[in-house]
Structures are given as structure tokens and as C-alpha cells.
Amino acid sequence: MMESYIAVLTKGICQSEENGSFLSKDFDARKAYLAGSIKDIVSQFGMETVILYTALMLKKRIVVYHPRIEAIQEFTRTLPALVWHRQDWSILHSYVHLNEEEVEALKACTGYVAGFTDSEVSSRPDLYDVYVNLADSEITISPVVKEAMTMGKLHKEIGQLIVQSAEDPDKSDSQVIKDISLKTKEILATLVSLTEVSDGNEKPTLNSEALKQKRFPPATENFLFHLAAAEQMLKI
Hints:
By secondary structure, the protein is an alpha/beta fold. The chain has ten helices and nine strands. It is found in: Late endosome.
């Protein structure tokens, strides 16, 4: 067993007379990432899907409630695909109980997507920035992040793009994700164009003056500033 594990780890292949060959390249992780349906999420939440997109982009805390764990798992595993450029499914905590140990472990994380089957979680605003009542198709933004999550023209454009792409019967889920990803790359390129490298730092940081000089609408400027913080592009 250990020999087989090491062979896959080092060579990407394992062969045996009993079980034949195993090639790790035949099991692309991205296929697992696409297991859920973005189109189903958009069908349920429409333009409000942009709230989920914004929360994920800004690495906010999303709590999802539904009495059925299967519904939570199907929904939550799809959300990270909205920020495909990160390829980060480690933010998922699909089944959390409201006990002290699990809650404290969750609080130790920064941004996350956490699923609960206990409706009492709605009374725990200390656990979320965005609360999704999946059973009632309702999304609530916490007052704590209202300023960071202010919606404007850019968000409307993103929302319309997501809805139009998802409602196209000729497009698959992977094509919808690609459309969203291209828009995200466009936003990130704008952000990068407003950065500078200084003080010997290898990582570029946001030039706040350059951001102001662009005279973006207030909500767009606000979003880019908080996105820079999420991407660790702010000077500390």
C-alpha cells in the first residue's frame, strides 16, 4: 500500500497485476470542482448571486442554512467556483454544528463558507457576514459589512453577466464559470494597474492616490479598495 502511494505521489502512476494501472492525470481535480451547478444557484437567486460573488471575492464569512445536509453540501461546494481564479475549496466547512469546539474552530478562519442544519445559526451574527437561508431563498448582508459590500454599477454589470450567461440554454456550467472568470480577470487587471512596488517589497501594493485619480463611481472604488485588502495588496 505504501509503495503504491509513494509511486503515485512521485511518478503519478501506480501499476499492479491485480488492479491494473492508476494514472493521477486521469483524475483532474477541476472535474471535482465542477461537480455542482452554478446555473442552479443563479436560477434560485438571480441577480442576488452577485452578493455571493462579492462576498467570496472579498473573502467574507458566508453561512448557509438548510434543514437538509444534502442541499447544503450541493450548494456550498459550488460557491468557490464563482472565484475560480483562486482554485480554493479549503474555505468550505459544509457541515458545522453549533457546539463550542466547532464554532471556535470556525472563528479561527478568516473567510469561509459554512453550512448549518440548525436554524439557530441565524441568531449568531458573530459567525457570518452574509447569511444564506437556502430553504427560503433569502440572502442577508450583516450590518458589519454593509460598507464593504455596497453595490453599485460594477456589481450590476457583474450580476447581469452572471444571469445572462447562466440563463443561456446553450451554455454549460463550465462555460458560465469561464464567463465569470474572464470578468474577474478584467477586474483584477484593473486593480493590478493601480499598484506599485516600493520599499523593497516584492508584492505590489495598491496606490490609493492612483485609485482616487481614476474617479471611479464610489461603490467601484470602495470595492477595489476592499478587494486589494482581500488580495493582501494594501500597505500595512
